[in-house]
Amino acid sequence: MNDSGYEIGFLLRRAHVRASAAFKAALAPLGIEPRHFAVLHELLNVPHSQRHLMDLVGSDKSAMVRLIDDLERAGLVNRQVSVQDRRVQLITLTDKGTATMRAAKESATAVATALTEHMPPANRHQLADLLREFITSATATHPTETGSA
Question: What is the pTM (predicted TM-score) of this model?
Answer without folding.
Answer: 0.81
